[in-house]
């Protein structure tokens, strides 16, 4: 017997979508109107959040009921901000943004993450249609926040960002885009242009069969604090340099 009121279930089931595979389900909740302050203006995005679950069911109350006994705040859920008529418009600009606690939240200038987050939202709004995926299980290129802190300690002792990961026993980049691409495909089947300098993100989209119509580079906010880091991304991680907009180009 469900402890949830029928009214609550009927409200929520209209806003939850099941995206299933052979192995698991992604439950996508939304759209939810999210007024966002961007460059002094209020811009309204459609916000969706998803939960990965082994149980695959159309009876969402089964999933909702379980949530109160699991502390989801101890885990990370990703989400997406959608702008414009994302399903239908011919052209859409997307970004797969990896969470960066230090750069996105604190405004750290050791990296370019905070700049890229704000800039890509502005680019999507200017373009008219698009989506920003905020990938919450990608901290530190997939090594997690505590390990990123240790990697920063090594970087303060002369290691570069790649060496630091490797010397802690990680690969340089452990990120996976699979779930985000499943969500993308559920929201749009038409081509997308990707905001990135990272060829691995382009490969992930291409190999998923998603129709990729192009890439928009995003460099900027170079400072004495992140110059070496940005250069290492080009020299060692294979990031695509944009002529004239990155140090030492
Ligand atoms: N391990 C580690 N992770 C970092 C460091 N600086 C930033 N990050 C993480 O790197 C991720 C962002 O990756 P970037 O290489 O800046 O950019 P990208 O996402 O690969 O590519 P773009 O789409 O071009 O931005 C975020 O998860 C950050 O937390 C660092 O020095 N070490």
TrEMBL record:
Cofactor entry: Zn(2+)
Superkingdom classification of source: Bacteria
Uppermost EC category: hydrolase
Protein EC: 3.5.4.25
Residues of the GTP cyclohydrolase II domain: 75-217
Catalytic activity: GTP + 4 H2O = 2,5-diamino-6-hydroxy-4-(5-phosphoribosylamino)-pyrimidine + formate + 2 phosphate + 3 H(+)
Molecular functions (GO terms): GTP binding; GTP cyclohydrolase II activity; metal ion binding
Protein name per UniProt: GTP cyclohydrolase II
Originating organism: Cohnella cholangitidis
């Amino acid at each position: 017997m469900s402890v949830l009121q029928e009214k609550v279930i009927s409200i929520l089931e209209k806003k939850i979508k099941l995206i299933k595979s052979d192995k698991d389900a992604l439950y996508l909740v939304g759209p939810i109107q999210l007024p966002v302050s961007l460059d002094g203006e209020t811009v309204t995005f459609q916000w969706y959040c998803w939960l990965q679950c082994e149980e695959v069911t159309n009876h969402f109350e089964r999933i909702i009921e379980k949530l109160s006994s699991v502390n989801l705040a101890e885990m990370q859920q990703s989400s997406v901000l959608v702008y414009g008529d994302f399903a239908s418009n011919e052209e859409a600009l997307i970004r797969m943004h990896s969470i960066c606690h230090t750069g996105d939240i604190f405004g750290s200038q050791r990296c370019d993450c905070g700049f890229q987050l704000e800039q890509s939202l502005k680019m999507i709004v200017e373009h008219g249609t698009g989506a920003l995926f905020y990938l919450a299980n990608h901290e530190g290129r997939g090594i997690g926040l505590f390990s990123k802190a240790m990697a920063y300690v090594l970087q303060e002792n002369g290691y570069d960002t790649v060496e630091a990961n490797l010397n802690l026993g990680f690969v340089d980049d452990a990120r996976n885009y699979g779930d985000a691409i499943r969500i993308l495909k559920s929201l749009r089947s038409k081509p997308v242009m990707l905001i990135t300098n990272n060829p691995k993100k382009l490969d992930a989209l291409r190999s998923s069969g998603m129709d990729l119509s192009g890439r928009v580079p995003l460099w900027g906010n170079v400072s004495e604090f992140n110059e070496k880091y940005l250069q290492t991304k080009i020299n060692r991680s294979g990031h695509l340099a944009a002529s004239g907009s990155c140090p030492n180009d």
